[in-house]
């Protein structure tokens, strides 16, 4: 018996691609023959074209299909005899891409249609949060479980980019958000919150880190907001290297997440790792990931959120309490815990 993974696009630096790599390492460590198959493969990634799976497909195999968007892989996997695990990462609501990227918006609509054909042929569906599990249940999947994310936290134990640290090593308060530049992430709202916080503390800056490829028109909207509000000290460097990312987390005094659609949100876990206090909008899977840690924002009132940021920065006792809770929550995502959970779920399918 072999256990393989398949997905539409295999790229470096995104949450899905990173998890595929970690699952592959784990399966091989357990002694399974395990390969990665994809339709679109970045030159840096080690994988095979998905149609090559015909050579190894078997009713005795387990195939993990990472599902997040429409693709030709969906129709291909549906016809295979292998035992199927749907690894559901959520499908971004297409409304967020209207007027931003018509092609991705089409693939999201297509993905929802394709997912509807899977409940009856799926042995197990693994959701990355309670939020996405409810969606799977509503679609008629009969065997669902929650498997948050298999992460390698050791990748953050690297040397930062010293030039970034030295450039911003001062008495300014640094606010950080990490996430793709796309409307659902609400970077436009973060800019408004920052404008209020600037009135409280002029010696502050904002880092908005994330890939904007395919969403350039939204980036233009953010730049226009920055101009209209006459905001200074806002940095939007785009996608950054791991060394640079570590530097920004080490600089951050507060992680500010106002995203209104998340199915897990890896940067929340990254913030826990770097002891960066989290303020996040209480919606979709955000509370699932945070548990009883961080600060959940129920109402998107920019001036009040700015006041809360100031409290987190100024009140040392409050700040330490937040960090302590986040450290406790981080244990939930430690590698041995997640590997044991994955082994348990795979065993259910094998048996």
Automatic annotation (TrEMBL):
<protein>
    <submittedName>
        <fullName>Glycosyltransferase</fullName>
        <ecNumber>2.4.1.-</ecNumber>
    </submittedName>
</protein>
<dbReference type="Pfam" id="PF00534">
    <property type="entry name" value="Glycos_transf_1"/>
</dbReference>
<keyword id="KW-0808">Transferase</keyword>
<keyword id="KW-0328">Glycosyltransferase</keyword>
<dbReference type="InterPro" id="IPR001296">
    <property type="entry name" value="Glyco_trans_1"/>
</dbReference>
<dbReference type="GO" id="GO:0016757">
    <property type="term" value="F:glycosyltransferase activity"/>
</dbReference>
<feature type="domain" description="Glycosyl transferase family 1">
    <location>
        <begin position="167"/>
        <end position="328"/>
    </location>
</feature>
